[in-house]
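Form 7-S
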Amino acid sequence: QVQLVESGGGLVQAGGSLRLSCAASGRAFSGCSMGWFRQAPGEDREFVAAINWSGGSTYYAHSVKGRFTISRDNGKITVYLQMNSLKPEDTAVYYCAVDRDAGWDARSEEDDYDYWGQGTQVTVSS
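Output:
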């Protein structure tokens, strides 16, 4: 059974920072790319960032590039999303996901991802 558990969400003022964590079961994590997506109220879920299995390749949505950093610790079976300079438009439920077939890539299409966490709420006040 694959399990992904996100944590680290909360309420923060604009300009502040949060770090999200996603703890994965070992079988899901090994050799897989990981991604973060988000869904704001009334909106479709959208790509935020992805990282390949080694951590050597990352990919970001234009809206977060330069502000967010994705990383992973394969020893701790955890992927992180460091979010700086947060804006009210970053408010959403954030999901982590596993992409089993990405190879060396870090992909952005939701359909490429096989397993999803339950999500963690991030709220940025103005």
